[in-house]
TrEMBL record:
Signal peptide: none annotated. NCBIfam families: pept_deformyl, PRK00150.1-3. PANTHER family: PEPTIDE DEFORMYLASE. This is Peptide deformylase.
Length: 193
C-alpha cells in the first residue's frame, strides 16, 4: 500500500464514519494489508487517510505485539496528567518532535468484526491512539508542537512531494515514448506485409 505523505490532500480531510455494513471480510483483509504496510515501514500505527481512505479507522501494534483495529473511535476520557514524547509519523518520514499529550486515555470503538469495545490505555498505546485519532480529523502531530518546526517540516515535505511528482511525470513520459516507438515499429512491420 502507498503511504500518503504530508502535502497530499487526503491527510488534511476530516474522515467520515464507517457504516456497520462496511465491516466485512474485504475490510478485514484491508486492515491486514495496513498492518503489513505498517510493519514493513517499521511504524506502530496507521490510519485510513495515511493509505488514501477518508474513513474513521486506524490500526496499532505497540510493544505488546497485539494487533488492534479501531473503527469509528471516540476518545471518551483523557487524564489531566500530561507527558512528553518524541513523536514521528510514517507520513512525515525523517522528522520527530517532542509532543505533550495526556498520559492516559479511554477510547470506545468497534473492532474488525464490528463489535463495540472500550479500552483504557496508558504509555505508548495511549499516545498512539491519540496520534492516529488525530489523523481522522486531518491533524498531524506537528500541528500540536512548535509552529516554526511545523512550518519548516511542511516546506521540506512540499519540496519532497514536488520532486516525487516530477519523477513520476518523467517516468510516465518515458513510458509513453517507449510505447509510441514500439507501436510505430509494429505499424511499420504490419504495413510491409
Amino acid at each position: 500500500m502507498k503511504i500518503y505523505k504530508l502535502g497530499e490532500d487526503v491527510l488534511r480531510q476530516k474522515c467520515v464514519p464507517v457504516e456497520p455494513a462496511e465491516i466485512n471480510d474485504e475490510m478485514r483483509n484491508f486492515f491486514n494489508e495496513m498492518f503489513d504496510t505498517m510493519d514493513e515501514a517499521q511504524g506502530v500505527g496507521l490510519a485510513g487517510p495515511q493509505v488514501g481512505v477518508s474513513k474513521r479507522f486506524f490500526v496499532i501494534t505497540v510493544d505488546d505485539g497485539v494487533r488492534r483495529v479501531f473503527v469509528n473511535p471516540q476518545i471518551v476520557h483523557t487524564s489531566s496528567e500530561l507527558c512528553d514524547y518524541d513523536e514521528g509519523c510514517l507520513s512525515l518520514p525523517g522528522f520527530e518532535e517532542k509532543i505533550r499529550r495526556p498520559s492516559k486515555v479511554t477510547v470506545s470503538a468497534l473492532n474488525e468484526f464490528g463489535k463495540p469495545f472500550t479500552l483504557e490505555a496508558d504509555g505508548l498505546l495511549a499516545r498512539c491512539i491519540q496520534h492516529e485519532n488525530d489523523h481522522l480529523d486531518g491533524i498531524v502531530y506537528i500541528d500540536r508542537g512548535d509552529p516554526e518546526f511545523a512550518a519548516k517540516v511542511t516546506a521540506q515535505m512540499k519540496k519532497r512531494l514536488e520532486r516525487a511528482q516530477k519523477k513520476e511525470a518523467e517516468k510516465a513520459r518515458k513510458a509513453a515514448s517507449i510505447a509510441a516507438k514500439i507501436a510505430a515499429k509494429q505499424a511499420a512491420k504490419e504495413s510491409k506485409k
